[in-house]
UniProtKB/TrEMBL annotation:
<keyword id="KW-0812">Transmembrane</keyword>
<keyword id="KW-1003">Cell membrane</keyword>
<dbReference type="InterPro" id="IPR032808">
    <property type="entry name" value="DoxX"/>
</dbReference>
<dbReference type="Pfam" id="PF07681">
    <property type="entry name" value="DoxX"/>
</dbReference>
<feature type="transmembrane region" description="Helical">
    <location>
        <begin position="104"/>
        <end position="122"/>
    </location>
</feature>
<dbReference type="InterPro" id="IPR051907">
    <property type="entry name" value="DoxX-like_oxidoreductase"/>
</dbReference>
<protein>
    <submittedName>
        <fullName>DoxX family protein</fullName>
    </submittedName>
</protein>
<keyword id="KW-1133">Transmembrane helix</keyword>
<comment type="similarity">
    <text>Belongs to the DoxX family.</text>
</comment>
<feature type="transmembrane region" description="Helical">
    <location>
        <begin position="128"/>
        <end position="148"/>
    </location>
</feature>
<dbReference type="GO" id="GO:0005886">
    <property type="term" value="C:plasma membrane"/>
</dbReference>
<keyword id="KW-0472">Membrane</keyword>
């Protein structure tokens, strides 16, 4: 005869315990990986958008036309807006991908996303929300150890 306490110790784990164990494994996904994927993926989105605004090394006339007719941002000249957008959509994603000035770059692109959401495409909030999460991961948690920011900070912490 076996008593009840012995049976509970050798009984197979139930489904809730197994699911909890599997969910616990997700705690081991490193922030470094999440930040790297966030930086590269959102950087690619903005880089590709920037590519549609340039013709070689110049801002395309079609980009200026788009800012004159469809975008029509308040308080800014369409020519200047097209040039600033083309610059920002190349400069900040490049910094994000290499992980240099990552938090600042993510913040700049988050502000750009807010402008797009508020003034251009307010119905696209699900897409812009997804972008915002990528930026907030980097702003709040940093770019991770696979970044120039990490290596620069590590260098200066050694010399201090």
């Amino acid at each position: 005869m076996t008593d009840e306490s012995t049976m509970t110790t050798i009984a197979p784990r139930g489904l809730p315990q197994k699911l909890n164990g599997l969910l616990h494994l997700l705690d081991y996904i490193p922030h470094d990986l999440i930040a790297l994927i966030s930086r590269i993926s959102i950087g690619a989105v903005f880089w590709q958008s920037g590519q549609t605004k340039v013709d070689g090394w110049r801002v395309a006339e079609t980009a200026v036309y788009l800012f004159e007719t469809e975008y029509r941002l308040p308080f800014i000249n369409p020519w200047l807006a097209a040039h600033l957008a083309a610059f920002a959509e190349h400069f900040f994603p490049a910094l994000l991908v290499i992980g240099f000035a990552s938090r600042l770059s993510a913040l700049a692109l988050l502000v750009m996303t807010l402008v797009i959401e508020i003034f251009l495409y307010p119905d696209a909030w699900p897409t812009h929300g997804t972008w915002a999460v990528c930026f907030l991961v980097i702003i709040a948690g940093g770019p991770g150890r696979v970044s120039m920011d990490y290596f620069i900070a590590r260098y200066f912490s050694r010399t201090a």
